[in-house]
């Protein structure tokens, strides 16, 4: 069943969305050359706890994966694109990192993701990231009241194809609100003017993700991390969006961020100190 949200409920989701967007922007500065993925994970855990929020990932145990997830971030590096399990890995110059997070505050959820280069960028990686961001904006623009769900899917797919990328339709966007995953499924490829009507009050996560040279995927032995089947680089962008009578409203917009530069020695020491491996919840 699809639940349409009231303006008040969308406003409450927007509170969560602001937190998620701000934390993602912050994490993009934390994740730099020489920083361990687990330090990024623990930084997010601390911020979520300070805000009184709840992670949607911690007890996440779907039919795939080896649940529960027991982390608050999906951290996917290079050829990993979805559900990257945080692990002991030190970020290197030129890594392409995707961070995905979903959290709830007072019973209302928001979900968002971004990809960026750590350190020195490869133009081909920047093009791939740009394609997901342009596709995301196209999907958002297509989320107009009175339109059809296929309009969003078609807009995303059109951008992917214009950049020369193929689209995997196994995973895509989804409804969101009281829980992280609600109906409907929002495919990253489809036909315009088809599918369910986009009524005001519909809240969805729109999330295009592309692999550079394939549309096939494979799973790591951890049961979670999804990679491109051919080892090519990947990227992922996502926002939580509400369809309103006046048009789409993005609930997870992020403040400007600057990613990719190594932190100072003082900042790195601070991050490591905050997220000490001696912490009782370090996993």
From TrEMBL:
Residues 230-283 are annotated as: Disordered. A divalent metal cation 1 binds at residues 100, 111, 238. A divalent metal cation 2 binds at residues 111, 174, 207, 238. One of its GO terms (biological process) is proteolysis. Residues 16-245 form the Peptidase M24 domain. Pfam families: Peptidase_M24. It catalyses: Release of N-terminal amino acids, preferentially methionine, from peptides and arylamides. GO terms for molecular function: initiator methionyl aminopeptidase activity; metal ion binding; metalloaminopeptidase activity. InterPro entries: Creatinase/aminopeptidase-like, Pept_M24, Pept_M24_MAP, Pept_M24A_MAP1. One of its GO terms (cellular component) is cytosol. It is an enzyme of class 3 (hydrolase). Binds 2 divalent metal cations per subunit. Has a high-affinity and a low affinity metal-binding site. The true nature of the physiological cofactor is under debate. The enzyme is active with cobalt, zinc, manganese or divalent iron ions. Most likely, methionine aminopeptidases function as mononuclear Fe(2+)-metalloproteases under physiological conditions, and the catalytically relevant metal-binding site has been assigned to the histidine-containing high-affinity site. Keywords: Aminopeptidase, Hydrolase, Metal-binding, Protease. The keyword Magnesium does not apply. Its EC number is 3.4.11.18. Substrate binds at residues 83, 181. Its cofactor is Co(2+); Zn(2+); Mn(2+); Fe(2+). The keyword Hydrolase applies. Removes the N-terminal methionine from nascent proteins. The N-terminal methionine is often cleaved when the second residue in the primary sequence is small and uncharged (Met-Ala-, Cys, Gly, Pro, Ser, Thr, or Val). Requires deformylation of the N(alpha)-formylated initiator methionine before it can be hydrolyzed. PANTHER family: METHIONINE AMINOPEPTIDASE (PTHR43330:SF27). Monomer. Belongs to the peptidase M24A family. Methionine aminopeptidase type 1 subfamily. This is Methionine aminopeptidase. It comes from Phytohabitans rumicis.
């Amino acid at each position: 069943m699809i639940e349409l949200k009231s303006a008040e409920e969308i406003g409450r989701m927007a509170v969560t969305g602001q937190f998620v967007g701000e934390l993602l922007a912050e994490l993009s500065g934390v994740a730099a050359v020489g920083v361990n993925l687990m330090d990024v994970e623990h930084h997010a855990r601390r911020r979520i706890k300070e805000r009184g929020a709840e992670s949607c990932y911690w007890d996440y145990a779907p039919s795939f994966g080896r649940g529960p997830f027991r982390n608050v971030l999906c951290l996917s590096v290079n050829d990993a694109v979805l559900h990257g399990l945080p692990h002991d890995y030190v970020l290197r110059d030129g890594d392409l990192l995707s961070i995905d997070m979903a959290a709830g505050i007072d019973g209302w959820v928001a979900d968002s993701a971004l990809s960026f280069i750590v350190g020195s960028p490869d133009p081909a990686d920047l093009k791939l990231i740009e394609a997901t961001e342009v596709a995301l904006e196209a999907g958002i623009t297509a989320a107009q009241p009175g339109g059809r769900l296929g309009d969003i899917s078609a807009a995303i797919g059109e951008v992917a194809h214009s950049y020369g990328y193929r689209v995997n339709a196994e995973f895509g966007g989804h409804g969101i609100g009281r829980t992280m995953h609600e109906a409907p499924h929002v495919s990253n490829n489809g036909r315009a003017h088809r599918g369910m009507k986009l009524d005001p009050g519909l809240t969805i996560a729109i999330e295009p993700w592309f692999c550079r040279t394939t549309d096939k995927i494979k799973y790591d032995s951890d049961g979670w991390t999804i990679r491109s089947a051919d080892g090519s680089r990947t990227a992922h962008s996502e926002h939580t969006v509400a369809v309103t009578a006046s048009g789409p409203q993005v609930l997870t917009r992020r403040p400007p961020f600057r990613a990719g530069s190594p932190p100072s020695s003082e900042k790195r020491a601070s991050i490591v100190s905050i997220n000490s491996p001696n912490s009782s919840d370090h996993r």
